[in-house]
Amino acid sequence: KMPAAKIAIVQYSLYGHVSKLSEAVAKGIRETGATCDIFQVPELLSEEILEKMHAPPKPDYPIITADKMKEYDGFMFGLSGRYGTFPAQMKSFMDSTGSLWMSGALVGKTAGTFTSVGTQGGGQETVNLSCIPFFAHQGMVFVPLGYKDPKVFNYDEVHGASPYGSGTYAGPDGSRMPTELELSICESHGKHFASITAKLASEE
Question: Could you tell me the pTM of the whole model?
């Protein structure tokens, strides 16, 4: 029997959509027997700016540090979309991992992505794709969702998710919350990611 994988979700959520996705992804990961911890990256915006943006309080997840990444076999990155790519807060965290890059600490660890964007052209594919250079430089193994869950093919309703990763649409004003379909795909994504991570981690 393969040892249980240890997986971290690293997220940035401004209005709560990504946090909802993270919880669903974590549920899927844990259903495989893997352990899963959810972290958030440090905020770069001031309290005053966040208040003006009507952002709700941050979730009660611990703040990730680069050093903490050494403890995990794989990482799922929860990404808010910003003009088709991921936000500065996530970029700032990724840029803090230079010591891990120098030591090769993340080589062979798995990486996956999921996203919340505002509109149908907002980046369900490109937000995920914009992480690939970071994964490549760190020597990480990108695990896409593919069409592992047939619900990704669903054409009966508007929904997030692409072959690159699970996701949701927040709507232009942020009022749309993740649907049951989207959360179900997130769970499938978590399960699939955890199973691949366990196989790779067992070979080390």
Answer: 0.96
